[in-house]
Amino acid sequence: MIDIIPAIDIIDGKCVRLTQGDYDTKKIYNEDPVEVAKMFEAHGITRLHTVDLDGARSRHIVNYKTIEKIADHTSLVIDFGGGIKSDSDIDIAFASGATMVTIGSVAVKEPDLFASWLEKYNDNKIILGADVKNGLISINGWKEEGEDQLMPFLRKYVSKGVDNVLCTDISRDGMLQGPAIQLYKDIMAEFQDMYLIASGGVSCIEDIDRLNEAGIPAVVFGKAIYEGKITLEELEKYVG
């Protein structure tokens, strides 16, 4: 059964959402991300995806104190991304209570550094971030479009031992128009043992049902919950 991973995106210590990564579309949903995290946990959810949007834009971790508070007040398994660009950043992320980190830009720009993290940390602690726009990997908070095509990018890192991948279709992120199910099917067809986390576009419980039926291991979503398109009660069949 598909793993349910709600997302908390953070700007200025607050729970927000963007549309297609555009900071000008910021909408604040809650002043206290800890309150949101505790609500998820109260409904049986065990995983949480957090994104430091200030960090992604600043290219170093900013909102680590918020992660500390979530870790201190819940038992959620926290995946943290956004702004991790150095050994110091990744150390801060883990010291702040993250169980796992999602790394995208470094894997593109500094593959040797990324490889050193794969070697240093247990594979279950590193998630490869593959944010896709027009078939190409985007980096630095989606502000920069790289030259790497998705499938060769994944092949390169799967060959180096990567098992966990978070793939976001940027064109669908925050749009509530449904996930790119065929994209995820194509990825799973080639990498059958990959722990693929689908992200972007989830608009209703039926979208999650379709991803589950397609055999996608996990899904990250946020706006659909915050906009009331999916209720936590509807998710209970996946988090029981």
Question: What do these coordinates show?
Answer:
With 240 residues, the chain is α/β, with parallel strands linked by helices. Helix content is 36%, strand content 30%. The protein is built from 11 helices and 12 strands. The chain has an 8-stranded parallel barrel with strand order 1-4-5-6-7-10-11-12, surrounded by 7 helices. Strand 11, helix 9 and strand 12 form a beta-alpha-beta unit. Helix 1 packs parallel to helix 3. The longest helix is centred in the N-terminal third of the chain and has 10 residues. It is globular. The termini are close together. The relative contact order is 0.15. The model has no long low-confidence stretch (mean pLDDT 94).
What's a concise summary of this model?
This protein is of the alpha/beta class and 240 residues long. Helix content is 36%, strand content 30%.
